[in-house]
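Suppose you are handed a protein chain with no further information: no name, no annotation, nothing but its sequence. What can you learn? This example shows the usual starting point.
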Amino acid sequence: MIFDNSNISFSNSDIGRGIILPRRLTSELAELFGIMVGDGCIHLRESPPNRIKYEILIYGHSEEDLDYHNLTTSNLFYKLFKIKPYIRDVYGKNAIKICVTSKAITSFLIKKMGFISGNKIKNACGIPQYFFKVKDKTIVAALIRGIADTDFYLVFKIRKDTKFKEHHYPLIAGQFASRALTEQLKELLNELGIHSHLEKGIRKLNNKL
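A reasonable first move is to predict its three-dimensional structure. Written in structure tokens, the prediction is:
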């Protein structure tokens, strides 16, 4: 998949920092997009006088996710766009946010990659259809890896068909507010030959970013 970036505008700050944009869909770009689907958002904020602030944010736990974002997320941004994001603590919470401000990058993620700005749940953010047409399965796997690294977890359950009473059966699980997204993930996992199933449940989210 080749991107025509001729209609993407660069701000003076973008030009001064030497920001570049990818010309084709790669595993690295798919992985970063997966991270964004899992824990990221894009905000277009009004910033006086008569300006718009283009902001990319990715949230994580201040201890459990710090090394991951310092190494993986930060390096992906630099390899793809030649910019290093900055990481800040979220005041009053055990959380961090990874920040990138760039008109060109936000425009690229929205116009070319199909990322939805604003509230992802309200705006039904999911996986763009072009990922379902990609023939290179390493790109699909990278997308799922990005989502899994931010939103999946390991649990151990009791299997009723065994004599063991302890929680010993390992499962990799993820919980999403969007059923459409979970169905899309299941379809892509099936394409990779990975068995999965959907469970409907309700979970109270406390201090969810």
